[in-house]
């Protein structure tokens, strides 16, 4: 009888299953990332993604039931290790870069670079080690957006370029390698070579994710680039407008064609909030991104508002997420970053070496 009254591990795990999505819970268990120490009233978790709001929410929801089981407030021992996820094709990859995420758009001007920059910063703000590579040969804008336009790439060993540090992330740009006027006449293999060059000839520190701002469109250039780089996954940026959605469809189709995993869709310029009166309007329509995601059975990763501050901040080289002044503009990016990191874990398997390391612990 005494034994029955004593809380056991399984009861604690049963409690946690009610508050963690099954796909996440099962994988955490399979990969030995979640353990319970009943005697110490401890939940020990090694999170494979950085998601502060997700964790805070989980702790808040489980506080009462776990306290009842443990007869004391639970202690959470949380550590982080983002795995390198398997991808279908595996061109040689820099060992320092665990994962490469392409930010893509079917058409130009939907805010792909703005999203790349702020998403990279938000992933870093959530705790991940982040690099940003500007592969947009048509208009490399990342150096300007990060306030590093005047910075020149340097090399300490005469072989590898130093990655440029800005606002807590490191970056490099294809813009440092090319003349603007040249890019217009490039073909796929040339652009792909330039991307590989800037990727492989940069001295990247250890990165959980390298975010790549791809050139807009789904033509020969984008196709070759996606084929020749070890992309872990792609996210597609669209606006709610029909024309943008049609092109976003082409984006998803392109990545499917070259066997690159698509994490999901992001809707930019979603709702306009008037700075003066707060009135909200769906200038480019509403719900299109979500509908498209449903059509392709992909996660809808988040909607980002249309707001003048996003433009002004990147124009000044101080992106909104780095500036961190307006929570209503920063919060959607932090949520988006969590969504991307969590969905990658849900969808993809860690590489074999990664599993072995975890099992040995
Ligand atoms: N959510 C937003 N609210 C307000 N302005 C935005 C938003 N997103 C992007 N912009 C602005 O829209 C313009 C186009 O954005 P951006 O350069 O990021 O788009 P892009 O898709 O990368 O374009 P390109 O096809 O030229 O590479 C920029 O002036 C940018 O500041």
Helix count, per DSSP?
A: 15
Q: Name the helix and strand elements from N-terminus to C-terminus, one letter apiece.
A: HHHEEHEEHEHEEEHHEEHEHEEEHEHHHH
Bound molecules: adenosine-5'-triphosphate
List the strand order in the largest sheet. 7-8-5-10-4-11-12-15
Biggest sheet architecture: 8 strands, mixed
Structural domain tally? 2
Level-1 CATH class name of the largest domain:
Alpha Beta
Mean pLDDT: 89
> Mind telling me which CATH architecture of the largest domain this is?
3-Layer(aba) Sandwich
Which homologous superfamily in CATH is the superfamily of the largest domain?
P-loop containing nucleotide triphosphate hydrolases
Work out the number of β strands. Answer: 15
Our estimate of the beta-strand percent is 15-25%
CATH topology annotation of the largest domain: Rossmann fold
- Work out the radius of gyration: 22 Å
Cα(first) to Cα(last) distance is 35 Å
- Secondary-structure class: alpha/beta
Shape, principal axes of CA atoms? globular
Low-confidence parts: none
Kindly state the percentage of residues in helix.
Answer: 40-55%
């Amino acid at each position: 009888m005494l034994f029955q009254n004593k809380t056991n591990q399984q009861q604690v795990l049963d409690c946690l299953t009610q508050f963690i999505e099954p796909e996440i819970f099962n994988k955490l268990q399979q990969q030995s990332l979640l353990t319970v120490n009943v005697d110490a009233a401890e939940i020990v978790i090694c999170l494979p993604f950085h998601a502060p709001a997700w964790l805070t929410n989980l702790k808040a929801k489980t506080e009462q039931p776990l306290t009842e089981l443990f007869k004391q407030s639970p202690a959470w021992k949380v550590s982080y290790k983002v795995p390198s996820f398997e991808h279908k094709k595996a061109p040689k990859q820099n060992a320092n870069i665990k994962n490469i995420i392409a930010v893509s758009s079917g058409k130009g001007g939907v805010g792909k670079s703005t999203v790349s920059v702020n998403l990279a910063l938000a992933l870093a703000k959530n705790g991940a080690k982040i690099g940003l590579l500007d592969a947009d040969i048509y208009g490399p804008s990342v150096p300007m957006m990060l306030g590093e336009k005047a910075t020149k790439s340097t090399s300490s060993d005469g072989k590898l370029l130093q990655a440029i540090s800005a606002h807590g992330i490191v970056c490099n740009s294809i813009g440092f390698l090319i003349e603007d006027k040249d890019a217009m006449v490039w073909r796929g293999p040339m652009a792909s070579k330039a991307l590989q060059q800037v990727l492989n000839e940069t001295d990247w520190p250890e990165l959980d994710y390298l975010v790549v701002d791809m050139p807009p469109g789904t033509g020969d250039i984008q196709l070759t680039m996606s084929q020749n780089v070890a992309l872990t996954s792609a996210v597609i940026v669209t606006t709610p407008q029909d024309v943008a959605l049609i092109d976003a469809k082409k984006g998803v189709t392109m990545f499917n064609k070259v066997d690159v995993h698509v994490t999901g869709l992001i809707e930019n310029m979603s709702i306009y909030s008037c700075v003066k009166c707060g009135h909200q309007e769906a200038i480019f329509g509403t719900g299109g991104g979500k509908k498209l995601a449903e059509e392709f059975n992909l996660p809808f990763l988040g909607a980002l508002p249309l707001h003048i501050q996003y433009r002004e901040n990147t124009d000044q080289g101080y992106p909104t997420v780095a500036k961190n002044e307006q929570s209503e503009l920063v919060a959607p990016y932090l949520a988006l970053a969590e969504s991307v990191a969590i969905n990658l874990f849900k969808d993809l398997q860690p590489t074999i070496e990664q599993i072995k390391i975890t099992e040995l612990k």
